[in-house]
């Protein structure tokens, strides 16, 4: 598919280039966070019954303090900063915070309930440099558990389609005894109609632990997977983590929370994740590369049944670092038995440039030149011909 060189399409290509560079840099070194979630205010305008991440009273973190925390995350080499909450659109200076993230050449994303979006607000997010927005929609009609409903938010989705100049992901949820599991399919289909990315999450309990899918939930989940356009991380995630989680089976993996993923609460403390607050709870200004390196290999007892998908996705990059060919094959298995691996285009391009030759032979001249040019384009240090061979 060729896209005409409109402003929107140019920004689309720029985002893909920045994402490819993020992946390449994450593969090159394990000594920096790939993703940090930062909380600019704990207050939320909704009260979802299952949520343990909001209150109704707290004030926004001051803008000056938020900018200081962004600087500290940049100094640690963070590649993506996601602003969540509570509800981040309630923060009066969200645009300034987004601009600060982009000024450090960090990918800027938010997770919102979408209630406060208007065409004018979306245009301001464009101008601030937002690159990705996620809305989680829980049901078709509001109920006592959640008001994050397609019926309420559909107009906002149309405005996002018309005005949004950033990637948009609509997450639906299954599990946890949700009243109408078929709603997840309706939400996914609507999001696909609008051209958005989609993911589906398995609801975790208040400790971040698993609730397996049963009966109708299972059928709806399989139907969603068969209709969905596979996105890069969602597709790999489904093949590895989701496959076990939806059956109530544990995953064997190394959780990189506190290392490759940081959760910065409103008090400026670094925690493992939203579900494991209190560990290690070190002030961000005191967090160092030594902390990052220690937590890289710290075993987390909650890992086998963890459903915190953003930390899983970051861990997939480290699986590829550690064992590129085998991990890629597991993440993107053949669609037909005995067929080739189902690599998305970006993975095919990066692996053809950076992966060592399968037969262990040194790469030829053409391959060395291509890799060298790609390293320069991604701003990678030329300490080796491949980011996959450094710092392993
Ligand atoms: S909108 Fe999000 S932060 Fe607010 S209560 Fe619901 S799940 Fe929690
Ligand atoms: S395994 Fe990691 S991401 Fe999951 S709940 Fe535990 S600390 Fe959080």
From TrEMBL:
Gene3D superfamilies: Aldolase class I. The keyword Cytoplasm does not apply. SMART domains: Elp3. InterPro entries: Aldolase_TIM, Elp3/MiaA/NifB-like_rSAM, Radical_SAM_PqqE_MftC-like, rSAM, rSAM_sf. Keywords: Iron, Iron-sulfur, Metal-binding, S-adenosyl-L-methionine. Its cofactor is [4Fe-4S] cluster. Residues 30-250 form the Radical SAM core domain. It holds the Pfam family Radical_SAM. PROSITE patterns: RADICAL_SAM. GO terms for molecular function: catalytic activity; iron-sulfur cluster binding; metal ion binding. This is MoaA/NifB/PqqE/SkfB family radical SAM enzyme. It comes from Edaphobacter modestus. The lineage of its organism: Bacteria, Pseudomonadati, Acidobacteriota, Terriglobia, Terriglobales.
């Amino acid at each position: 598919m060729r896209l005409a060189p409109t402003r929107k399409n140019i920004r689309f290509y720029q985002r893909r280039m920045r994402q490819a560079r993020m992946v390449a840099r994450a593969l090159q070194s394990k000594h920096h966070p790939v993703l940090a979630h930062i909380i600019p205010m704990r207050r939320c305008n909704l009260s979802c019954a299952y949520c343990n991440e909001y209150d109704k009273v707290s004030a926004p973190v001051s803008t000056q303090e938020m900018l200081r925390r962004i600087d500290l995350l940049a100094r640690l080499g963070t590649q993506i900063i996601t602003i969540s909450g509570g509800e981040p659109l309630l923060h009066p200076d969200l645009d300034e915070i987004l601009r600060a993230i982009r000024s450090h050449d960090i990918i800027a994303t938010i997770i919102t309930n979408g209630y406060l979006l208007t065409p004018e607000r979306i245009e301001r997010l464009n101008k601030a440099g937002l690159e990705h927005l996620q809305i989680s929609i829980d049901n078709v009609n509001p109920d006592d558990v959640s008001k994050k409903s397609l019926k309420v938010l559909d107009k906002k989705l149309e405005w996002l389609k018309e005005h949004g100049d950033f990637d948009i992901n609509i997450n639906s949820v299954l599990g946890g005894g949700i009243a109408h599991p078929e709603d997840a399919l309706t939400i996914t289909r609507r999001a696909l109609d609008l051209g958005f990315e989609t993911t589906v999450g398995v609801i975790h309990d208040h400790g971040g632990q698993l609730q397996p899918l049963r009966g109708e939930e299972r059928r709806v989940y399989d139907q969603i997977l068969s209709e969905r356009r596979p996105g890069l991380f969602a597709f790999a995630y489904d093949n590895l983590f989701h496959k076990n989680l939806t059956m109530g089976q544990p995953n064997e993996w190394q959780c990189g929370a506190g290392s490759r993923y940081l959760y910065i609460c409103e008090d400026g403390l670094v925690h493992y994740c939203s579900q494991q607050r209190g560990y290690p709870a070190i002030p961000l200004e005191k967090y160092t590369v030594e902390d990052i390196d220690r937590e890289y290999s710290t075993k987390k007892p909650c890992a086998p049944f963890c459903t915190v998908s953003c930390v899983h996705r970051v861990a997939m990059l480290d699986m590829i670092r550690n064992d590129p060919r085998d991990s890629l094959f597991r993440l993107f298995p053949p669609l037909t038995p005995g067929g080739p691996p189902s690599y998305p285009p970006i993975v095919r391009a990066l692996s053809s440039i950076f992966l060592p030759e399968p037969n262990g032979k040194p790469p030829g001249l053409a391959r060395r030149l291509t890799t060298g040019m790609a390293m320069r384009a991604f701003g990678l240090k030329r300490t080796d011909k491949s980011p996959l061979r450094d710092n392993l």
